């Protein structure tokens, strides 16, 4: 579904991702692992359209979307949940969801379907998103992405900085998502990420240093490679 | 007692003029962070729209009422053109924006001189705005009461658009987190343009209102631009309610000081007080509060 072909990405004159090739098949779950600074977030931002590769291309269902802006990729079924539990802090939880439903269609039905997945959110609909806890904000962030009814969801460290009880809920939600859509996941919890993933890519210094299929054996290999 | 009430109304009236001048800036500067020095010239364009409308339509009342939406469209279109041609390229360079829009302001003033002539022109107030209105406790000029009403309608309309409509949600989302809005499916460029249209259109309406208070000339808007920025900054950047409170607060303050001194001294005193206020509270009357900022 999503293909990155020989993608180079940089900030100014500094190239931080060098010639990465990555495939996310329809309905597949792909994990990108690596130390901080390896280029994982940069790669995901390029997949979402927030960064334009300096060379190489991004294909979606075979169509070259390298030059498409993020909102145009959303129309083609790509949703992105950035790192850091981001939200529109001055909007209520309801308006955080409505702003997405307004532009992507689906209306109240789409919101209601998504809220069924996150029982913690309905009591908070009238609260300003900036006043939520980190875990609640992350659930809102994933909910907001799902309102677009994506075919591919890109998740950047969805459990980072979240208290352990909520991490389990978020991991459960992600596992459920994998049955409905393709998932491209950057996650520090190696056991969870590789347990859910059908394939993984290990990044080092902006390059893919290893790839393989997911599962418990892969988790051992990746831990060894990352020397954790 | 009459004098106090008269001065109180003068303050409210001045506040309503400041509010109309600052309301558009509260969007383009307060929400989008664009320092648009040509905002005053959009007001000037609105004022000349009223002048042209009156030259085309004989009935001064009908011309004035029509000039309000026309002024909004003229100001809005000028804003969109400025945003699309220059400001869009400078969103991360506020000082460049300031200099460029100042240059645009000078060009627009010269265009006005070339088209309408250097001398000021007059827009006749309709007969129903010429006299005074007896409010029971005091008499107030009808034109100033009209401007007060127009300011209330404008701020109510803007508040409704921002809080109750899909466009308003989109504008606030883009202001709060551009990247997130883009990845949520919002076209930030289209939203920027619409926001600029509304903000500049409000300046056009302010210009129409100003024709009721005096003559119209190429520098009409530049006389208000500093006051308008002062209102937005004192109210708290990004806060419409702060802009409303600051506009009426400064209007009342200036009218109050004027009562016992002179207009010039009152203006200096108000500037000095705002500077002192901002030293103590740099974020203005209201600030954006979130869990992380609280």
Automatic annotation (TrEMBL), chain A:
GO terms for molecular function: ATP binding. InterPro entries: AAA+_ATPase, ABC_transporter-like_ATP-bd, ABC_transptr_urea_ATP-bd_UrtE, BCAA_Transport_ATP-bd_LivF, P-loop_NTPase. SMART domains: AAA. It holds the Pfam family ABC_tran. Keywords: Amino-acid transport, ATP-binding, Nucleotide-binding, Transport. Residues 2-228 form the ABC transporter domain. Belongs to the ABC transporter superfamily. This is Urea ABC transporter ATP-binding subunit UrtE. It comes from Actinokineospora xionganensis. The lineage of its organism: Bacteria, Bacillati, Actinomycetota, Actinomycetes, Pseudonocardiales.
UniProtKB/TrEMBL annotation, chain B:
The chain crosses the membrane at residues 56-82, 94-112, 142-162, 194-216, 228-253, 265-282. CDD domains: TM_PBP1_LivH_like (cd06582). Its main location: membrane. It is a multi-pass membrane protein. InterPro entries: ABC_transp_permease, ABC_UrtB_bac, BCAA_transport_permease. Signal peptide: none annotated. It is found in: Cell membrane. Keywords: Amino-acid transport, Cell membrane, Membrane, Transmembrane, Transmembrane helix, Transport. Belongs to the binding-protein-dependent transport system permease family. LivHM subfamily. This is Urea ABC transporter permease subunit UrtB. It comes from Actinokineospora xionganensis. The gene is urtB.
């Amino acid at each position: 579904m999503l293909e990155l072909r020989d993608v180079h990405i940089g900030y100014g004159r500094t190239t931080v991702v060098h010639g990465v090739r990555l495939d996310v098949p329809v309905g597949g779950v792909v994990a990108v692992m690596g130390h901080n600074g390896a280029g994982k977030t940069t790669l995901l931002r390029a997949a979402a359209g927030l960064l334009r590769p300096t060379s190489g291309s991004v294909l979606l269902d075979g169509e070259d979307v390298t030059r498409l802006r993020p909102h145009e990729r959303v129309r083609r079924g790509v949703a992105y949940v950035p790192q850091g539990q981001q939200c529109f802090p001055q909007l209520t939880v309801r308006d955080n969801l409505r702003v997405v439903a307004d532009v992507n269609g689906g209306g109240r039905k789409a919101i209601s379907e998504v809220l069924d997945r996150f029982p913690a959110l309905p009591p908070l609909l009238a609260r300003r998103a900036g006043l939520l806890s980190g875990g609640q904000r992350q659930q809102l962030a994933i909910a907001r992405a799902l309102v677009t009814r994506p075919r591919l969801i890109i998740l950047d460290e969805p459990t980072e900085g979240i208290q352990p009880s909520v991490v389990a809920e978020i991991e459960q939600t992600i596992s459920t998502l994998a049955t409905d859509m393709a998932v491209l996941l950057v996650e520090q919890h190696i056991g969870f990420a590789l347990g859910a993933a059908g394939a993984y890519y290990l990044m080092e210094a902006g390059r893919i240093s290893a790839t393989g299929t997911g599962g418990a054996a892969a988790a051992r290999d990746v831990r060894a490679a990352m020397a954790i | 007692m009459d004098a106090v009430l008269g001065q109180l109304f003068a303050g409210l009236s001045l506040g309503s003029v400041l509010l109309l001048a600052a309301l558009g800036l509260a969007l383009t500067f307060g929400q989008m962070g664009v320092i648009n020095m040509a905002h005053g010239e959009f007001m000037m364009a609105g004022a000349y729209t009223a002048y042209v409308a009156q030259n085309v339509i004989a009935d001064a009342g009908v011309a004035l009422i029509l000039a309000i939406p026309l002024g909004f469209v003229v100001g809005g279109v000028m804003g969109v053109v400025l945003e699309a041609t220059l400001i869009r390229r400078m969103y991360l360079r506020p000082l460049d924006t300031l200099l460029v829009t100042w240059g645009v302001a000078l060009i627009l003033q010269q265009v006005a001189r070339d088209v309408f002539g250097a001398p000021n022109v007059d827009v006749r107030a309709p007969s129903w705005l010429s006299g005074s209105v007896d409010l029971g406790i005091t008499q107030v000029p009808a034109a100033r009461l009209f401007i007060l009403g127009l300011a209330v309608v404008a701020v109510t309309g803007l508040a409704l658009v921002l809080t109750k409509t899909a466009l308003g949600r989109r504008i606030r989302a883009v202001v709060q987190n551009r990247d997130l809005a883009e990845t949520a499916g919002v076209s930030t460029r289209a939203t920027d343009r619409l926001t600029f249209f509304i903000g500049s259109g409000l300046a056009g309406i302010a210009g129409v209102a100003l024709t009721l208070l005096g003559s119209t000339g190429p520098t009409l808007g530049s006389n208000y631009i500093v006051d308008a920025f002062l209102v937005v900054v004192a109210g708290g950047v990004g806060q419409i309610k702060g802009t409303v409170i600051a506009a009426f607060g400064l209007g009342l303050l200036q009218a109050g000081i004027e009562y016992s001194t002179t207009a010039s001294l009152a203006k200096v005193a108000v500037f000095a007080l705002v500077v002192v206020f901002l030293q103590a509270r740099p974020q203005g009357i209201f600030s954006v509060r979130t869990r992380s900022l609280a």
